[in-house]
Amino acid sequence: MDKAKPLLNVENLGISFGGLRAVQGVDLQLFSKEMVGLIGPNGAGKTTFFNMLTGVYEPTEGTIMLGNRKLNGLSPYKITQGGISRTFQNIRLFGELSVIDNVKVAYHSQAKHSLLSSIIRLPQHFNGEREMEEKALAFLEIFQLQRFKDEKAKNLPYGQQRRLEIARALAASPKLLLLDEPAAGMNPQETKELMNLIALIRETFELTVLLIEHDMPLVMGVCERIYVLDHGQLIAQGTPTEIKNNPKVIEAYLGEEVS
Ligand SMILES: Nc1ncnc2c1ncn2[C@@H]1O[C@H](COP(=O)(O)OP(=O)(O)OP(=O)(O)O)[C@@H](O)[C@H]1O
């Protein structure tokens, strides 16, 4: 990817819910392999922004381009296929399915063997299944979840469920990974390990990562650039040092979280 051309180019993005303008006039660019933070007080519009990028909500204004492809109006499924995967603030796993099946489900959108070959059980089906199993296991290994592979997802400890969600998001082979508060509810040790893991997968899979996170030291520590939303509008963008010293950001947070 040409460094001068963004992987993701968002221009003037906005959405209204009835009379509420939850997000407005947001311009944001992500370049290949960047790790970028999206921060802001509660209710600032961060998750709504992710929901627009992933087709959950259709923007009421503005454009979202992934490379040369316009994403406005595409279904979440098409957007995942197009290269954007996400995790959720509240974990959304298939609790009754095994850990490995949770990863394989995500894999199905990329599977090469056809539905027909699965139904009538052609050799391609079994080869495809075997390949999928091997790849899913490889993802679980990266996330140190292989020993839980046959466990129901709902029985995993909380921190492991968060890791499984990221493993599943990666199985769809994204170019861009959106993480919505991945460290929420984790203790400091788990958080540190998770951040090291995210740095590792970014390198390994040549990913671009956009991260929503309330833990300021964490965001400041891992992101190269940070965007700040407040009341649905961007109030600042820059390096962690620039953001830390930005008067508008300090005011939005009342000087608490960024210091
Ligand atoms: N489907 C919806 N219908 C109506 N209002 C909505 C909807 N989704 C989001 N909002 C409103 O949009 C605003 C932004 O919410 P959003 O969840 O995006 O904030 P956030 O920055 O992610 O907050 P938090 O950090 O607490 O998760 C809020 O006022 C919220 O109530």
Automatic annotation (TrEMBL):
One term under GO cellular component: plasma membrane
Name used for this protein in its record: ABC transporter
ABC transporter domain mapped to chain residues: 8-256
GO molecular function (one): ATP binding
Lineage, uppermost ranks: Bacteria, Bacillati, Bacillota, Bacilli, Bacillales
Keywords: ATP-binding, Nucleotide-binding, Transport
Lineage: superkingdom: Bacteria
GO process annotations (BP): D-alanine transmembrane transport; L-alanine transport; L-isoleucine import across plasma membrane; L-valine import across plasma membrane
Keyword Nucleotide-binding appears in the UniProt entry: yes
